[in-house]
Input
Amino acid sequence: MTAVLDHLAIGTPNLTDGWELFGGVLGGTWAYGMDSPGYWWGQLRFAAGPKIELLTPTGGPDAAFLERFLAARGAGPHHFNFLVSDIGATLARVRALGIEPVGVNLGNPHWQEAFLHPRNAHGIVIQVAQQAGEPAADTPPAGLPAPAARTSFGLIEHHVGDLPGATRLFTEALDGRLEAAGDDTAELTWPGGKRIRLVRKEGLPLGGLLHHVRFTRSGGAFTTQDQERAGLLAKRLGLTVELAG
Output
């Protein structure tokens, strides 16, 4: 069985900021998206690395989880998604680490999912899902600007209170390859240029905090205008973005 980091999801009440940052500045191109009960989601892909997913509530009782998140902290990183080839085997490995998944829904053969609570997943929701085929790309949203020059989504830096525990979760249950490890850091990779750097920090809420993400433009440097625009939009999205060229 395999597990691969697929995307980082960001909750926001304003999709325009996300489209402008990840499409208009960072060159993300439309992958797919649709309405789900209580929320709408859409994903952008990059030259390498995980996708970015934007989530926004659309009302009704099924929107409560996202509305609570936005009310408590505003826009910001909501979850990591890992696509797995055998969700039953993945959940067994999660439970072997002493973590009980929540929101387990295996009734739909096309999309089976479960979640790890931030208290057990070092400060961020982790979604594991098994899907039967990739969703078909549909019409991009009207607010998505023409993409800028493409970039690679090369790094997620995540700060955690329990570095050994986080490393075990991402390697033993979620198939991360441990590329480098020290007393205070661990570098984990998955196929397709997907990378998480874990950094030990004490006193973090729920035991962890997504610190920043890094995008690289291989064909040239980001302009000063790019840097300024990205910083403003990222702040509105509750995110810190590092641009490298």
Observations:
- Helices lie at 15-25, 64-73, 87-96, 163-173, 224-236.
